[in-house]
Structure formats: C-alpha cells, structure tokens
From TrEMBL, chain A:
Keywords: 2Fe-2S, Flavoprotein, FMN, Iron, Iron-sulfur, Metal-binding, Oxidoreductase. It comes from Aliisedimentitalea scapharcae. It comes from the Bacteria. This is PDR/VanB family oxidoreductase. GO terms for molecular function: oxidoreductase activity. Transmembrane segments: none annotated. The keyword Iron-sulfur applies. Pfam families: DmmA-like_N (PF22290), Fer2 (PF00111). Its cofactor is FMN. Residues 5-110 form the FAD-binding FR-type domain. InterPro entries: 2Fe-2S_ferredoxin-like_sf (IPR036010), 2Fe-2S_ferredoxin-type (IPR001041), 2Fe2S_fd_BS (IPR006058), Beta-grasp_dom_sf (IPR012675), DmmA-like_N (IPR054582), FAD-bd_FR_type (IPR017927), FNR_nucleotide-bd (IPR039261), MRET (IPR050415). Residues 234-321 form the 2Fe-2S ferredoxin-type domain. Its EC number is 1.-.-.-.
Amino acid sequence: MSAGTAKINVTVAEVKPINDLVTRFKFVRTGGGELPTFSGGAHTVVEMQDGSTTRLNPYSLMSDPADRGAYMVSVRRDDEGRGGSLFMHNNVREGMEMVISNPVNLFSLDLRAKKHLMLAGGIGITPFVAQMAQLSHTNGLFELHYSVRTASLGTYAEELSEQYANKVHIYHDDQNERIDLETLLDGQPLGTHIYVCGPKGMIEWVHKTAEELGWPREAVHSEEFLAPASGKPFEVKLAQSNKIIQVGEHQSLLEALEANDVDAPYLCRGGACGQCETTVVECDGKLVHYDHWLTDEQREGGKLIMPCVSRFEGKTLVLDR
Amino acid sequence: MSKTVFPPSINSRPVYGELEVRPGKHHLMIADATGAEAILDLAKDAPADLWAKTHIIYIPKDTGEKYTGELKALTPAQMYVGPSYEAAKQRVTDTFAKAHMGLQVYLTGTEGVMGQAMAAAIAAGIPHTAIQTEHRGSTARRMQCVHCKGITEDVTTDPFVCSHCGLNLFVRDHYSRRLAAFQGVCIDAEDPGNVPPQVEVFK
C-alpha cells in the first residue's frame, strides 16, 4: 500500500535508448486524458510484472511538469542489480500497459531560494531535468554542474547544454574534470540553495563541504534512493497479522511482506521518506540498517526498522505489522 | 539557554539560545545594550582570526559608552555604533544584500532588535533556524496593534495603550516573525472602559 498515492493505469508511448546505459520511457494515461500535475524532483513508483514477481521501482520524473500529457522517466541499466532496471530495458515495449503511482516529491525545490545551485552525478541528472523546466517557466535563477563518466555516457548533457546555454556546466571524469566545489560555493549570493543527486560519495562530499563553509543545513538538499541490499535470508514474525514469513536473499523485507499479502505502507522504497517505519516488538539478533531516515539514536535504540531497505541477522525478529 | 528564563508559552513565541562560534568566512553580529556582553563572552573562546572576518553592528541604547570600548578592542573588520535599530537598518539591509552564503549571523540583546534583524536576514534568504540568537537585558516587547497595525516599541506593561490609536491592548504571546512583533488585542472591546489594572510584567 503506497500511502496516500493512487495508482494510474498508463500505456508506454515511447521507448527510446539514450546511450549504452540509459533508456527513456514515456507514459501516457491509458484511454487518454491528463496525468496528475507534479513538481520538479517528484518520482513515481513503476510496477513491473516480472513473471510471478512484482517489482516496484521508484524513478524520478524528468518531463516538463507543465506537460500533463505524458510522464517520462530515464532508467539506467544495472546488470548487477536485482532485476528492475533490466526488466525495464529488456521487457518494456511501446504499447505495453503498466501501472504507476501518483507522483510523490521528496526532492522539491525550495521556492524561497533566490538561486538554485544544482549538482548532478550520472543518472542523478533526471530530477534536475524536470526542475530546470519548471524554473525556466518562471525565470528562476539556476545553475547546473553535472559530472559524467564520458561524453558518450553523459545522459542529456548535450541537450541540456544547448537548451540552457551558460547555465549548464559539464565535467567529464575521463578527462579528469572535477567540480571545484569550494570555489563554486564561495561567493554564492545569500539565499542560494544547493541540490545534489548522484552517488552516495558525492552527496556526502557536498553536505560536508557546505557545512565546513558555514552553509545552513536547511539550504542543502539531496536525494539518493537506495536499491534494497541483498543479504542472508531470515525469518520474521508479524505481531498484528500473526504470520511468520521468510525474507529471501535478494528480497527486501517490504517485498516479503507484500508477497504475503501484508498491506504495509511505503512511498519511496529507497530508504529516504520514512513512510514504512515499523516498530520492532522483539529482536534477538542484529538489525542491519541501510536507510537514511532513522537517526543514530533510533538505530541504537533498536525499536525501529525501515523494511524497504533494511535487514536482520539473528534468531528472532517480531515486527508490529 | 537564555539568561532570562521565559515561562513556557505557545509555539510561535521565539526561544533564544547561547551564541557559539560557527565556521564561516564572514560573521555579522548585531547587538543592542547589554547584548554586548554576549559578544564579549563569545570572544573568550573565539579563535583569534574570527574578528578579522567580523562586522559588528552595535546599538548601545541606555548603556552609553559602557561596552563600546571593549567591543572595539576585539578589532572587528567593521564596526558600527548607532543610536537605534531604525538608524542601523539601512546598513543591516545593505550588508545582507552584499553578503554571500556562509555568512554567520549572531543576534543578541532585546527581543525587538533580534526580531527585526532576523526578519531582515530571512528576507535576504537565510533560513531562520540557521540564525543564532541570545537574549540579554530588557524583556520589553515590540507590539503590533492588531486593529490599527501600528507598532509600539519597548512595551513593559500589560495591558498597554496603543501609541497609535489609543486602544487598550492585551499583550499576547502570539508572535509574527515577519513583523518581528508580538500581537496586542483590544481588551475592553465589549465593555469599553472596563480595563484591568496595568501591571509591569516586562522589565
């Protein structure tokens, strides 16, 4: 159960390979009509029927928020992953009917900002594509610094450079180009907000550097969805529904709950939003936290777990579900 | 903790902390009256290179020359001493307009001055949670009359008479961050003239 978000029946209108790793998918409402409005930075959870497995992956919407005719997402293929992105790349075809969730925004622009400074790494570019479209409608002041591996893998780098000339700066890893963050942050006008989306290391680097330079915590925004980590299979008892279920090696706790018809809440499925927070009734063993929702104290307290990404190792785990 | 212990109140009522040095390339300190003591206390543990990056705006009010010399002795990069917040306002606005991200803001003294400086900082784009405050000195309040919208500074009694429209106003804890003022509401609207005795609650 995705809390508060209705499902939308959509038809795949276009499948377009962008480069060796990334493919773009366009969804229109099945039977016609407009899609719900969204704001730049929002994501949708795409449902994939992969045989007997239902995969639910969140993807950032990258189309223009002003265009309610279609949604677009870009999916980076992960050959080592659990199969969601591979399913999108290998199985999703034009004309296919799919189900997606209403958009949810966990990475929205702070519209009080006087300037928006965006930092993207790799496929982390997608939420910014929608945000830049949104800001350009209102003449918002923004600047994008985008780090890509190579020019050929620079998803949308060329298009964005053309569309927003003088606002987009591309850095190529293979040419040893790096964002000079300290210089970039130094001298930004008061009221500037930073947005960063990319690999974990990049997000931490930006938060740390900004903090050292005296930037307010509230002016630095980031988004990183985690894929649920694999781990040893384990057994979990559910206090409310009185069930004992097995969580597989490559299955998340949330997916195991869903496979056993437990209607557990979720929004992002990537450890970021806090919606699936669940009370631990009994725990004889170790909770393995992967989320970035719980505080260190809450983790040490051992009374809460985020089933979308976190796991358990030990003898007995009882959850209040 | 503030030096004055304020009784528990509603959520909109500001709370104040204790100034501490935070990392940043530029520091702006705005103080009135005995707020100077909070800056001097901060200076005891401050790194030596802090003052070369600091701009102090000080409004002595009734403390006269008492703290000015000591503040100057800290050798801030810039220091302004002026008669009132009104007089300093243009400088405050101009400083924020030219400032860059990473500026640390320290406000200390009375609620009226801290509140007005904070409103200027927020308007310039600093999140209010990133602005440090420490209350020192008088607890007199800057009050807005909700009827005529006039602002009366340094209100020490409850009820008080609006300096603009003359209504008898009850001092509420409801606070407007935008106006940097508490709200005063007519206390004898339904029974004109029936006003409880004035009590000096803020000193």
